[in-house]
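Why this split exists: single-chain examples teach little about how molecules sit against one another. For that reason, every record in the complexes split bundles all components of an assembly together and asks for one structure covering all of them. Below is a record exactly as it appears in the raw files.
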Amino acid sequence: MNFILRRLGFYLVAAWASLTLNFFLPRFMPGDPATALFARMQGRIQAEQIQTMREAYGVSDDPLWQQYGAYLVNIFRGDFGVSISYFPTAVFDVVRSGFVWTIVLVGVSLVLSVLIGNILGVMGAWKRNGFVDSVLPPLLMFVGSFPFFFLASVALFFLSFEWGWFPLRHAYTDGLAPAWSWEFIRSVLYHLVLPAATSIVVAIGGWMLGMRNTMISTLAEDYVTMAEAKGLSQRRVMFNYAARNALLPNLTAFGMALGFVISGNLLVEIVFAYPGLGYQLLTAVNNLDYPLMQGLFLMITFAVLAANLVVDLLYVRLDPRVRAG
Amino acid sequence: MSATNQTTAAVEVSPVGQATPVPAEAAFTGPRRRSGAWLTQLLGNRKAAFGGLILLAFAAVAIFAPALAPYDPTEFVGRPHRPPSSEFRLGTTGSGQDMLSQLIYGTRISLGAGVIVGVATTVIGALVGLAAGYFRGRVDDFLSLLTNVMLIIPGLPLLVVLAAFLPAGFWTTVMVLIVAGWAWPARVLRSQTLSLREKDFVSSALVSGEGSWRIMLREILPNMMSIVAAGMFGAIIYAIGAQAALEFLGLGNPSAISWGTILYWAGNNAGLLVGAWWTFVPAGLCIALVAFAFALVNYAIDEITNPRLRSQRETNLALRRHRRQLGVSRATPVLRSAGQHRAAGD
Amino acid sequence: MTRQALQDLVVAFQAGRLTRRQLMQRAAALGISASAVGAVVGRSAHVAAAAQGDTSGLVTVATEQVATWTRNFNPFSPDPRWPTTNGIYEPLFVYNTISGEIVPWLATEWAFSADNLTLTFTTRPNVTWHDGKPFTARDVAYTLNLMKQNTALLGASRTALDVVSKVEATNDTTVAVTFSEVYTVGLYDIGTQNIVPEHIWSTVADPVNEPNATPIGSGPFGPVPVFQDQYYEVHKNPTYWQEGKPAFEGFRFPAFPTNDAANLATLNGEIDWASNFIPDIEATFVARDPENNHYWFPPTGATVHLYLNTMTPPFDNADVRKAVSMAINREQITTIAMYDYTNPSDSTGLSEAYPNWKNAEAADAEWVTNVADQANVLLDGAGLTRSGDVRQLPDGTPMEYQLNVVTGWSDWVQACEIMSRNLADVGITVTVQPYEYATWFDQLQKGNFTMSIGGSESGATPFNFFRGVMSSQTKEPIGTISALNWHRFSVPEADQLLADFAATSDTAQQQQIANQLQLLYEQHAPAVPLFPGPQWGEFSTLRFEGFPSDENPYAILSCYAPESILVMMEIKPKAAQ
């Protein structure tokens, strides 16, 4: 219980830190939302109309601490301000739709890469110098060395554009109404294949090596030897005794990796025009939509915090030592 | 000590999602003042030698760029999007510059940024980690909190947002990458310091009245050099990848010539769409090769510092024959094991 | 010949009238290799697949680049969904940039009073709003008054409304706009203002933030049957006042987050009408389907300039500005940075949007040609002597400057790189410095720069352009925002000419004055004109035809141009062959 309370405290501090960081970032910048919007219009409205837009946005001249207070209150209410590129829509409404798709993409690619990576790691450690152990690590390491966006661009160009095997963009066929129908789900899965595959291919090597190395250490433990001595089947020893214990340190890595995986998926989303948070973040950057950028940054950070909290709770369940300590 | 820090992360996943192994454990057998042994072993390791060779080659290219490049990389020397020929070995870019010359000069900025960020994050991380692990108590509480907050804030969005707000340029990118990258080495080195602090040689140094910073830098730091090195290589991989990503998104300085900007311009000039693969593929390959080389070296360090990873055949045989060869000297497996991991990847 | 035969075969194959084997056999008979057939079948199948989902008669458009569509059809907001303005809502008249003519729209006639202080519009009878209620002159008066009262509402008339004192509908078909001072160029601002129905908007509580999800306008388009995060449709107004128009069912809009994504779809044959920048378009787009893929990039956008801050010596000297201009190789810029999509500027600074206004006498001054020798002579003459490779000011300061450009605007960045190399040849060291738009723009407006690339004002007449580059009215001290006159240049003659221009409603007289303004520009070189900005526009005739092009230039192709409503009137499904 103590452990959980301490963790909650930590997450509160982390949340506050990112909120504050988020508040000060745009205030380093000259110009204001109206200028930014004018940039987006690129000559479609006259320069002298900027003042009009400034009025529409209600640019504030209050002292900084007052703005900060108002900002915290607003965030607490779920009010992230009004987006510039989607004026007059609230940032929160813009972000909400992207959130779902990021969860889908990150969820699928993370779970699959962790699953496959860990199984390969277990296999590699079990059969040292076998095929899995000797060929896969260098190969996966090499593939994993390519930048995310590079692999994604190449895959998009050949598999989608030149050969037409996969869709070019979006999370489902344009115009299809979202519903729990087979047609819709199939469309979603079809659109998910390339983005997810790219991030799985890049990430899998790290999980495999990590699992392999901890497994090797675990396999040398007395209780594994003991289990073997009892004559238990290889499979049972491998998964029930060794892998289970080796998984524990990997679990925290899982929580930590989440932030990184979301980061990586941002690039994949951008290349595949997959409508998640990353894709929105890039358009926000391109359109100088600072309120939206801030909102997205906060949403991503909070998502990572929440996921880590879940991992912590899981950890408490799986590792009795933490509860005791 | 907060409970987070007891937990272990066996894999380092860089913000661009690339994963590199962190040495599972430096093999400490007792007070060991000189720890250069792993370095000698490293030179004899085939993986490390191969990785090192690639890196040396790239470093040479970076240093001798003016001599190696056939053209001025910014000069418009030919028609746009010419395929590779004897005149232009790697063809021309979408605006008619020599691709090979750009690639050669690009090595300087890409490698340079990587190394600067790698060294800087490692130095900052080492100082923070050493201080936190050595002083413990409030200092540790504060520094650990800072580190963990930085760690948990997702990297790339922060990079993108920071880079979008600040004026574009080489040093902006470097600064941003350092700000977002120092926390990981700090965390790894802190837990290592925590465990080393308990060793006899530190206690004896304390007794003999050595100053805190002297102990940290002269006694503890040399004993975890392999982890520091591995952390640094990991940071360099992260920096090269993240810099390329930022530049690819157009958040760097597109006038500077680096691998990332080559990819940015290739995208802008529709290199792939017109079939000019030579504007896109070589730069991506270079990034991958450098990252791969560093990863190989790290892999080798891992093998050297963790004897179990090395003695593969024996381990297997030992397990098969139900012999207790490796576990002999270790007692109470479960807790002991957790302790090891704690010291290791964390 | 063979090509056509092959196409026919492929069509037959796709329609199921031929098996794959028959196809190959007949192709071989025509002397076409199997791989060539394969390529065509593959590509056409691809295109056919793209076209298949679109049997609805909707024109697919690539316009704004956003990740997610938000349902905003408010014509007063800065960025409503296309085609809210000049599509769902309509103006009083449409200005056709290409022909230089005004096309009557919701107004049939208009005239200034003798003192040029009152502008009277006669509105079109028998026009109804989408909900069936009649459109009258009172709606026009309501719209203009609403904007006058609420200065946060955007619209074409915004600038002119500052000098409008009263707007009144005298009867159902007449509306009178009274100016507080003579400002005849306001005609275009008022005339192109989109009109909203009074009976709807008088009930809207907050017109600034109103999303107007179900727009009621008078235009050729209205119903929005589908609106999703990444996709929406706008269908035609079946009771449009122009009978038989539009000739197609409506528009569909997939969302493209980046230029790259929009380009991929365009090259893939999914888009009928687009306004994106496509690099190397002949090779990337046209070559994929030369029969159907077309583009037209008329250089009618604002002229891109190199701005030299005239408050910073030596750029207060016209000779130095001309020397800089002569050092620049415009051909290289338009070829390399702009892919030959535009041509070098002439010495009037005006783009190709003003064919009726150009003064040939002012157009071909020597200072817009690339003569480095002459540039050196002028610089020497200005007392800027060389010391080694770099020139010095009389006080010994080397001529080293920073050239500001916007991060990520790759064509501009490349143009700046070229200028930097060009200027090095005459002894001026220039470092290209990219800034984020807001920073770049802030420095530009406040005059905190020495060299910067930038756009300029455009409009139906050259009035706005010259007011921006040469008027003391738009000039502000360094550090104060100047919306237009970034380089801080003014001459009294220009002020007088601009005042005369705004005081007459006689076009011939305005053209006379514009001629003199151009001579003034040619004489002083207030800024360094580089090239007129092209207006991107692409179309595919796979499914629809009637788009404007180089051969049939009836209006600008770009969807962003207000006159795109003229294009909407002409698009029709491709006639069956």
